[in-house]
Design goal:
2 domains, mainly alpha, Tetracycline Repressor, domain 2, Arc Repressor Mutant, subunit A
Length: 224
């Protein structure tokens, strides 16, 4: 990469990161001039690099997804808990990313629908990698499992912060995010590791009920 192109990339990244922080604090009504001031650039450079405010937001979405994908993949392929504990020790650094995601879900619209679909696709990919690594169990329907987990994670987060953080000042969000993680980590790990139901009778009854149940994970579906 030439020095000129490297400088262009660095400037675009600085604008994108400033936009994530500003959108996280104020919502998507934040103006381009404020974002430009945060990034230390002229407002015209935002249009130069991203074309429009929606283009900037798409770039922010892509960065948020990349960070989430990287951290989830690390946790779910390690298998020892070491990576999880390291992430828990530094959870506050992810507060701007999480607040941006919350703002997106609260805003609704086409952009967040696309963001969530990308989250689900990423989840299916890293869950598949974790299956191959022997860290998680296979699923009868990997795509449905990934979608359920994404809905569960985002829905619980929106509900928790609606109940506990609706009136919080921007500088309080990192502490609130720490509290959210502390509240949910143990029950989530317990549920995902040890399960909830004492036997499989409900699952078996459901599989008998549905017209065309998916095959059990690992079952040989080839014709005899």
């Amino acid at each position: 990469m030439s020095a000129g192109r490297g400088g262009e990339f660095a400037t675009a990244s600085r604008i994108r990161d400033a936009a994530i922080s500003r959108f996280a604090r104020e919502g998507f009504g934040a103006g381009l001039r404020a974002i430009a001031a945060d990034a230390g650039v002229a407002a015209g450079l935002i249009v130069h690099h991203f074309g429009s405010k929606d283009g900037l937001r798409r770039a922010c979405d892509e960065q948020v997804l990349a960070v989430m994908r990287e951290q989830k993949a690390k946790t779910l392929t390690d298998g020892t808990g070491t990576t999880l504990l390291a992430q828990l020790a530094e959870v506050e650094q992810y507060a701007p990313i999480v607040r941006y995601l919350l703002r997106s879900m609260q805003a609704g619209g086409e952009l967040v629908a696309t963001l969530i679909e990308h989250m689900i696709a990423d989840a299916e990919e890293y869950l598949s990698t974790s299956e191959s690594a022997g860290v998680i169990k296979p699923s009868r329907d990997p795509a449905a499992r990934a979608r359920y987990l994404a809905y569960q994670a985002t829905g619980s987060m929106v509900l928790w912060f609606t109940l506990h953080g609706a009136g919080a000042a921007p500088d309080q969000f990192a502490a609130l995010f720490r509290r959210y993680i502390d509240d949910l980590t143990l029950p989530a790990l317990e549920l995902f590791t040890e399960g909830l139901l004492v036997d499989r009778s409900m699952l078996d009854e459901y599989l008998m009920y549905v017209p065309d149940p998916p095959a059990a994970p690992g079952a040989d579906t080839a014709a005899p």
